[in-house]
Amino acid sequence: MTDAPPATVSSTVAALAQKARKVYGEGDTQVIALDDVDVSFHTGKFTAIMGPSGSGKSTLMHCMAGLDELSGGNVFIGTDDLTTLSDKELTLLRRDRLGFIFQAFNLVPTLSAIENITLPMDLAGVIPDPAWLDQVVTTVGLADRLTHRPNELSGGQQQRVAVARAMASRPDIIFADEPTGNLDSRTGSEILEFMRQAVDTLGQTIVMVTHDANAAAFADRVVFLADGAVVHRMDNPTADDIFDCLRRLGD
Amino acid sequence: MTLLKLTFKNFLANKWRFLLTLIAVTLGVTFTIAVFVFTDSMRATFDDLSGDIQSGFDLAVRSELEFGDRIESAPVPVDVRAQIAGIPGVVAAQPRIFELNVIAIQANGEAATTNGPPNIGLNWETETADRVLFVAEGRPPDAPGEISMDINAAADGDFIVGDSYNVLTPHGTAEFELVGTFSFADPEESALVGAKLIAFETQDAVTLLNNGEGYDDIVVELANGADLDLVTQQITQALPDGLEVVTQEVLIDEQTAEFDEVIGIFQTVLLTFAFIILIVSAFIIYNTFTILISQRVREFGLLRALGASGGQITRSVILEAFIVGVIATILGIIFGYALAIFLRWLLAALDFGPEGGGLPLTPATFLYGIFVGIGITVVSAVSPAIKARKVSPMAALRDDVRLQADNTKHRPKLGIGLVILGLLIAAMGIAGEWQGLLVLAPAGAGLISAGAKRIDRNLSRFVLLAVGIIYLLLSATVDFGTGRTLVLLGAGAAVTFLGVNKVSPMLARPVASLVGRVPTSLVVGILGIGAGLLTVMSLIGVVTSLPGSLALLIPAAFCAMAAWLAIDTVPAGFRVTGRLARENASRNPYRTASTAAALMIGLALVTSASIVGSSLKASFSDVLQEAVISDWFITPPGNGDPSQAFSTEVAATMGALPEIDEVAAYRYSPEAFSITKTVNGETTEDTFDGLAADLAATDRHMFLDYLDRDESLIGPNAILLHDDFAEDRQLEVGSTFAVGFNDGSVEQLTVAGIYSDNALLGNRVVDLDLWNRKFTSTTDQFVSAIAADGFSEEEVRAALQSAIGVDYPQLNIETVDEYRDSIASTIDDLLIIVNVLLGLAVVIALVGVTNTLALSVFERTRELGLVRAVGMTAQQVRRMVRFEGVIVSIFGGLLGVGLGLVLGAIAVQVIPDSFVSQLDIPYTQLVIYIFLAAMAGLFAAAMPARRASKLNVLDAISYQ
Prior knowledge:
The structure holds two protein chains of two kinds.
Chain A: E1 13-24, E2 31-42, E3 46-50, H1 57-64, E4 72-77, E5 80-81, H2 87-97, E6 98-101, H3 113-124, H4 130-140, H5 155-168, E7 173-177, H6 185-202, E8 206-209, H7 213-216, E9 221-226, E10 229-235, H8 239-250
Parallel strand pairs in A: 3-8, 3-9, 6-7, 7-8
Antiparallel strand pairs in A: 1-2, 1-4, 4-5, 9-10
Chain B: H1 2-13, H2 15-53, E1 59-63, H3 80-85, E2 90-96, E3 98-100, E4 103-104, E5 119-123, E6 133-138, E7 146-150, H4 151-156, E8 164-169, E9 172-184, E10 196-200, H5 202-209, E11 217-222, H6 228-238, E12 243-247, H7 248-295, H8 297-305, H9 310-349, H10 363-389, H11 412-431, H12 434-455, H13 457-477, H14 482-516, H15 518-542, H16 548-574, H17 576-587, H18 589-627, E13 632-635, H19 649-655, E14 660-679, E15 682-693, H20 695-701, E16 706-709, E17 718-722, H21 723-728, E18 736-740, E19 746-755, E20 764-767, H22 768-774, E21 782-787, H23 793-805, E22 812-815, H24 816-859, H25 861-869, H26 874-910, H27 923-949, H28 953-957
Parallel strand pairs in B: 5-10, 7-9, 15-20, 17-19
Antiparallel strand pairs in B: 1-11, 1-12, 2-11, 3-5, 4-8, 6-9, 7-10, 8-9, 13-21, 13-22, 14-15, 14-21, 16-19, 17-20, 18-19
Helix pairs in contact in B: 1-9, 2-7, 2-9, 2-10, 2-24, 7-10, 7-18, 7-24, 9-10, 11-12, 12-13, 12-14, 13-14, 13-26, 14-17, 14-18, 14-26, 15-16, 15-27, 16-17, 16-26, 17-26, 18-24, 18-26, 18-27, 24-26, 24-27, 26-27
């Protein structure tokens, strides 16, 4: 069920894991979260990672995003091997080339919406491209909410700000960790629409971890994980296909 | 029981959070304990010394003394001794002579002075069997021209037995042969407390130390089995008028009381600083508990939902405070004891106090430690604990919960009652004695504030500040007498501190956003470098007396700090990290304000001390400019200390120099005159200090700015009075009034002049002629001289140096300008000591800043995780937290320096004009203080910043 690992890093691959291994604990209490995972995420595609609890999907994303360290193997963002980078280099890579959307607590409470959106660029000391910023803000429909603080925004609006922040610096790849987990299904769908739109019209690359089949159905491709290994891939999925697959995996 | 278990569990789970609270309390306890242990030990040492000094006899015969210092009493005639010795039952009658400021000159020409304890001259005992002096080397002095010296003094000054040395006595300087050394009180080890002793043969001592007129006292040893009362009676009958017999116990008690007075002052000063430190600690403890509780609101909500009562929650919080208090008290007692040992070692090393001896840890000291450590901690935690009680069970279920603000009920009638009661109590305090004022003024303010809160909550926030300001204004404008006005000023300051603390949360946001803005951070940076350079320049000036490397090290360190501050804050100010720091500092204004308040108190006190010191210098400099006509001043070390007075031979020698036109000598006693005052038929008698000068010559040396005078009245029984005293006593030029002296005699003195400038000569000046008749001590306090025409300053200096500088190496020979500078540097030295002690309060306040930041960082774990995830570097995190520390500290610094300016200015106003007549504000210093506050904030934030930057990003994001 697995691809053969590519011999060279393809230019159409935005991120890649090679024999990625993550082990927690030692001896009897040892848990293998990632068991030599090989997976690649293609530029301009929306990929969902699915799997039951404890399958290693969040660990995979954290390691690919430079938030966590592998125990073995390599992960690449573009052509950069993250396992060779220092903590500072990883931070700068996250700041300049990656975007993040988390399940909750996505925004800095003391900054306004627009300040949250430009935060990574402000940290870098880079002046945002106004035209692009405008486009991103319009895409997520926040133009009239920019000066509000997070506590003055609804959960859906907060998450839209998070999406805008992730896109604002034109990252190579956006990692989203259960981005709709805290939202009702209607608001969740809106967010997913924005993400879909970002991929289709702006050519953004997105990797999303989710356990929601309906959410995963927005993706171009779904990668299924179980017990720390990739067990299945599915292109252009529908929600029903995903349900079926999950049911089979659960058996 | 469950609750107790929970408390302990919580305590163990949050060890590091409590550690920070612990530090604050421990520091407070440590200082208090150290003060008590140290002063107790000093007292014990000096009690022993009193016993040693007054030992070896049963009775003493001495002249009666109406008031004042025993050293100024009339001598006991020489022939009395033989009379006493002849009385049955008397085994020995030992005359004693004791004089201060007898100093030997070392072989290298330097005076062998102490750093504070007295230089004493005395006679060698020959009669009594029970000795105080024990020969260590050589033999006792038994002929005129011979001396013996205590072994420590001999060793310190490299004096060699058999050699001859010059010795300064009230009789002048002469050469003596050192025939031996001795140890005091204990044959093995000299039990002197830093004092230096020189012993003479008795007859020689009478001549040199007592002007040939007799003994200070005669101590009497009785035969075994002699009846004390009977012998006392017989001696009394044999004595001429004016002499009395006292027992050894009386002398010991007098001696002890004399020492205790000094130690008491010392203790009061130290305790004042300990008190300030405790107030600052209380702020920190209160703050920490408030933050801890607000962080645990959800936990309390859960406990409440599970059935815990509000009372149980409150008790568990107070129990936690109690545990912190107990641990801090134990640590504080241990550290305090260690600090006391260190203090004693330090003072002994500086030749300033006792070495060795026990360090008593009395039950009272323990009680104070427990009161301070446990009491203050628990009391500080009460208000947060009561807030914790009001947490609703719903808090467990909601996401964004805050502690409810204080919800005092609106009860106008009770409120008005409280306000009226408060006003009455405050008025009673102001009308009464200062002790009452100290308690009643703050209590009244508290009641008024509590009452106002029940009438109108918003308005009440300003009430405490308003009351504080009213107190301050009252003390500045109304004269209640210096003592009471100063107490009112102190009470006003305390109330104002609390008032500012109530109002300052409103300032936190504007100040934080002002301080945090880009231009301000630039200004801070530039200011930092500027202050650094300024300090370099001023320190190079001040510190040249220090060893060279140190003189360079201090400014270099300062510059490095300034550079660090500039590097750290300027980029942060430009970036979003600065914006975040600013927002963080103002997101919880109460927290920021009370953190800053602790710093504010410390800095306000440092600032007002600096203003008073600087005004003192300016006033003194002014006075010298206006009041002094003469060219030269001869002063002893420790200016103004009557025990440092010197021989009249100095003035006589100077007068004979061709380079000197005229010399004026001044004598002084802190308790010279007894003057009665009758008001409404009630007669009170008070003793006053007084100065003696040659009244006929004074005008050529000093400009007194006479309001009225009659030169024809100048004579032996004339007195010059300052305007204030004359007005108080309703005296005018030509009035005659009765003045009592310490031998019991009374003279009628005539007012010959009333003057208005009294900084150098005090309030009462009599003629030297009267002084010589009435006082036994004939040493000069200081001498002024007018140079003869045609000699340059250097020629006069050289002449004075060779005429008196060799024989009296301890004296300062200075021009008026040099004299002013040395007074200024004395004030500076004092200010440094005061500021070091106040600096302790500032250091503790900084522990508070660290505390608050550490807790805030903890609280913002998830937020830090988020910003780290989206690309904030570890360095940027550190800068953000450090910049927040700088903002909070500058906030405290601005409040403190601002308040200190007001307090200092009022203090200058309150202090009598004879000390401080002119307000001088050291602006450069104030700017440096604010800079130092910013700098200190950077240091205080270093640890929390490091913690924040080392958070694991993944853990932080998923932190609940």
